Amino acid sequence: MSEPITKVDGATVRDDFNAINAVLHYTRAAHFVGLWKSELTLIAKYFPDPSARLLEAGCGAGRVAVGLWHQGYRDITGFDFASELVDQARNLAQEQGIAGLTFLQADATQLNSGSLLNYQPFDGVLFMFNGLMQIPGRENRRAALHGLHRLCRPGGHFIFTTHDRDDPKDVKEWAQEAERWAKGEQNPRLVEFGDRYFSDDNGNTFMHLPDRKEVLAELAATGWTYLESATRNELASETPKVRNFSDNCTFWVAKKL
To answer: What DSSP string runs through 195-229?
Structure first.
């Protein structure tokens, strides 16, 4: 008998991020791609004071946190649920003689149930490179949003990114996917419409692609007030290294009132 088909869940994604190909991919990005111009544009806009206490969810191998340190930001705590990536982030900081960055292992979906992050509220929260949308299941993503909201001070900002079903070049593809779901012919490992799970040279990747209506609904349901959104291409002209590392994406900014 064949093995039963299991849905992608948090354990699946954690294992995928801890796999050697994924670790190498994100470690190379931390060493050689670095902070994107678009990321810095928004972070500098909403956190003009480099003494701001920032929390980075899904810090991976340290690409963003280390990049921000080189821009003068000194009070950054990053966490990721993939232990191998956290180790790489710590190694990168050590190799570059960086003191003051904190990298922890923690699960974004469990921040409300006691964790390593019982600190004073942060001035702002980051969840870059589509990390929020690599959490399977809407309720789990909402749990992460609730937890990050709790850890942010009133008036603090939240910046995150997504890939989107609204992209005009993908309209036909998503129409076909909707037909598959209507017929029950979708990939049985997927949790909900908008999910993708694929393999390439960098390993296995889960990604949920929302539309604008969904993102706004999720923010409202978890206490965040939407401020603005813009695509990466609208924010900056990125280097070839960045464009090769990732397709265009949408940046979202919200605030805790």
So the answer is: EEEEEETTEEEEEE---HHHHHHHHHHTTEEEEEE
